[in-house]
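Need the bound structure for calcium ion, inputs here:
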Amino acid sequence: MKNKDKLVVLVVEDEPAQLELLTYNLEAAGFLVDTASDGEDALIKVAETPPDLILLDWMLPLVSGIEICRRLKSKSKTRAIPIIMLSARTDEVDLVRGLDMGADDYVGKPYSVVELIARVRSHLRRVRAEAVGGIMAYEDIELNGETHQVSRAGVCIKLGPTEYRLLATLLEKPGRVWSRQRLLDRVWGQDIYVETRTVDVHVGRLRKALCAHGGNDLVRTIRGYGYALGG
Ligand code: CA
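Answer from helper R.:
Posting the output first, comments after.
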């Protein structure tokens, strides 16, 4: 039986000492912990009891962490579960690859357990805010998930449905760089074929709308890659 008051974190890690360390600390922090020590086991666990968040090791036997991430993020049923990738591979190419596969965050080993748990909490807060239609904000931009209203410096801003979803995605994590492909997957859905250039068009519209009543352009372009909100 799942204890309804506690959030469930699934830890996928093949090194027993790491698994034990994470389990101990997460339980001490008030989470219920489920564990898997290889990729196949992880996929079965997620199908049986979808967790609230997944800590996923990169290097795993049978099915790699990155492949698990890709599979979970490509299914509408599991897409919303935040995934934090854990890896000893800290170079930037891997980071970008991990985020491209849909990971919500990336923590290099060795990590600080205290910081890792802080990140777990922060991702769970974000997911809950979206689920209950909370307010997301960055600088003077505010998006109300309940009324679907967007304002800047208190002035109401009219957005089309695509621009609204685009802004909601960017607001999930200000400063984070999103590739065009990832934005396409999130905003349009992975089953639909849309040219990546379409993203540029809608980002252009979003920019224009956000600056319609003045204020700096807060959407940042990362040449040849994608976009971020501020940062
Ligand atoms: Ca490993």
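Comments: The mean pLDDT is 87. The chain has two domains: 8-128, 135-229.
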